[in-house]
Amino acid sequence: MARRKETHFIVIHCSATTAGQQVGFEEIKRWHMMERAFMDIGYHWVIERDGSVKQGRGCDQWGAHCRGHNHESVGICLVGGLSKDGDPADNFTAIQKQMLKLLVTGLQSLYPVAQVKGHNHFNRLKDCPCFDVEQWLAEASIQTVEAVA
Fold it and tell me: CA 116, 55, 1 angle in degrees (round to 5)?
């Protein structure tokens, strides 16, 4: 019998594309399968510029998004993350951030011990996801507390 995957991390990524690029779930899936020879898209979830949330791999499957942690994580990719000059940029839309918050909240209810981290937490040579996840989490928590109060 196969052992159930344990999820210790929810890893936030970006697609490393500019805001103006017409990139979405299908393009990322094609990159992963055609250019990297993956069996499927490496992420479990992709949040497109318009806020559409698309599921890739099932959360019970190993991802292919964070070397050394694919067996214990769920990967979420936000489309964007680069300026027009190719520099890291927190250029995600407000709806993307809202959907990220909803998705992370849902995943935290499924995996209550999972820590939310940016890809750069596991690989200091990467800028991905091109925003400070810890700061975003703190701000998201403040907004949640204020909404309840």
Answer: 80
What pLDDT digit, counting tens, does each position of 31-59 carry? 999 999 999 999 999 999 999 999 999 99
Which positions are catalytic? 13, 43, 119, 126, 128
User: What is the end-to-end Cα distance of the chain in Å, rounded?
Assistant: 47
The Cα–Cα gap between 43 and 80 comes to 15
Rounded CA separation 103/34 (Å): 28
The pTM of the whole model exceeds 0.85 = yes
Delineate the domains of the chain, giving CATH numbers in brackets.
9-148 (3.40.80.10)
Q: What tens digit of pLDDT does each residue of 58-92 get?
A: 999 999 999 999 999 999 999 999 999 999 999 99
Q: Report the amino acid identity of residue 59.
A: C
Structural element, H or E, at residue 108: helix 94-110
